[in-house]
Each structure stands twice: as structure tokens, then as C-alpha cells.
Amino acid sequence: MSKLVAPSVLAADFANIQRDVEMINSSEADWFHIDIMDGVFVPNISFGMPVVQAIKKHATKPLDVHLMIVNPDQYIKTFKEIGADILTVHYEACTHLHRTIQAIKAEGMQAGVALNPHTPISVLEDIIQELDLVCIMSVNPGFGGQSFIENTYTKVQQLKNLITFKGCDTKIEIDGGVTNKNANNLIEVGADVLVAGSFVFGAEDPIETVKELKALIN
């Protein structure tokens, strides 16, 4: 299976969002990664529904929407309506995670769960077979441009072992501090999808950067 690259729109130029979306369309990137932050679950506010709708209007690739918010259940139907293809919620924000995952799937979206750096893989043992995606936070959520947490490699290996043991095909996504320096190591320990924000959008030639990252991991 081809390994995927999902540029994080959080690092895009919001004064030129259509331009940046069309740039990703024309690149070898696979998904748009869209971080929704509420200033409550994480200490930052990103953007909401109108921006997602604007991205969807121009995007030709799937929208991988990552909810870093409290009470995600109340917005599941809305995010389906505005164009999310994959919807990821945080384990730490969901009291009834199984019910939340069922609700996402009932809307016809792929369902993902994100884990903060301090949350152990073991919390997913009873639900891993229900998940299309697990997003491992390799930085503390809330801000772009942070340094990669080295313990991520161990967590990815543990998650890969769990997925293999349970016999499911859940994808492993890494979000935070991904560059060409750690991409290959992440793939080697089991990652399937790499989210890259400032590494792509801050590059002199983002399209070439995506191309090189794809070549490196496949």
C-alpha cells in the first residue's frame, strides 16, 4: 500500500487559501489535513466551518478533518455536510468513544481517533477494530511548527503491533513535526500517513517538497 502525505492547511496562507488549495491539488499530496481548534481542548483557535467550506469548494482530494475540540459529537453531522471525508476525534475529548465512532460512520465518513503524546496506545485495545485511522500526535496539540517528540517511534511500533494482533487494517497517521529527516524512520516503524504543515507550506517550492517526501517514503 502506498504511503500517504497530507499537508496541514493550518500552515497555509489564509489570505491566499484558494491558491494554496490549488497548489496541493496539483501536487502529489494525497489528502488535505484540516485542524479544527476551539481554544478549549487546545490553547489555540484555528478556524471553523466557513473555512472548511471554502477549502472543499476548491479541493480535489479528500478532506482529513481533525477535531481538536470538546464535545465533538454535536458537530459530526455538520462536518459531513460541509465536506469532510475522514473525521478524527480525540480520545481525550470523548466520554463515549464507541458511540462517537459509530455516529461518524453512520454519516458515511471514515472514522479516526487521535491520541495526545501522554496517552498510551493501550486505551485503543477495545476499539481498534472499529477505526479507519489512528492519529498519533507527535507534538502537543494546539500549535504548528513544534519540535517532534522522539517517543513517537515507540508509540507507532506499539500501535502497529496492536493492529497486527487484532487483524485489522487501521491506518497510522503522524501529526506534528514531520520532515524529511524523520519521515523514513516513521514509515519503517509502521506509519501510513504523514501530516506535514510548515515543512510543506514553508518550503521554497512546496510542490517539489511534497514530491520528494512521497518519493522518500514509497
Automatic annotation (TrEMBL):
Which cofactor(s) are needed, names only? Answer: Co(2+); Zn(2+); Fe(2+); a divalent metal cation
Give the CC-aspect GO terms: cytoplasm
Cofactor-binding details, from the entry: Binds 1 divalent metal cation per subunit.
* Record keyword DNA-binding present: no
- Can you state which reaction this protein catalyses? D-ribulose 5-phosphate = D-xylulose 5-phosphate
Q: What is its EC number?
A: 5.1.3.1
Residue positions binding substrate: S8, H66, G142, F143, G144, G145, D175, G176, G177, G197, S198
Provide this UniProt record's keywords sorted from A to Z.
Carbohydrate metabolism, Cobalt, Isomerase, Manganese, Metal-binding, Zinc
Annotated Gene Ontology MF terms?
A: D-ribulose-phosphate 3-epimerase activity; metal ion binding
Q: Which CDD domains match?
A: RPE (cd00429)
Query: Which biological process terms from the Gene Ontology are attached to this UniProt entry?
Result: pentose catabolic process; pentose-phosphate shunt
Q: What Gene3D superfamilies does the entry give?
A: Aldolase class I
* Pfam families the UniProt entry points to: Ribul_P_3_epim (PF00834)
Active-site feature positions: D35, D175
Pathway field of the UniProt record reads: Carbohydrate degradation
**Binding locations of a divalent metal cation:** H33, D35, H66, D175
Q: What does this protein do?
A: Catalyzes the reversible epimerization of D-ribulose 5-phosphate to D-xylulose 5-phosphate.
NCBIfam families linked = PRK05581.1-4, rpe
PANTHER family in alphabetical order: RIBULOSE-5-PHOSPHATE-3-EPIMERASE (PTHR11749)
- Family designation: Belongs to the ribulose-phosphate 3-epimerase family.
Name the record gives this protein? Ribulose-phosphate 3-epimerase
> What organism is listed for this UniProt entry?
Wenyingzhuangia marina
- What is the name of the gene encoding this protein? rpe
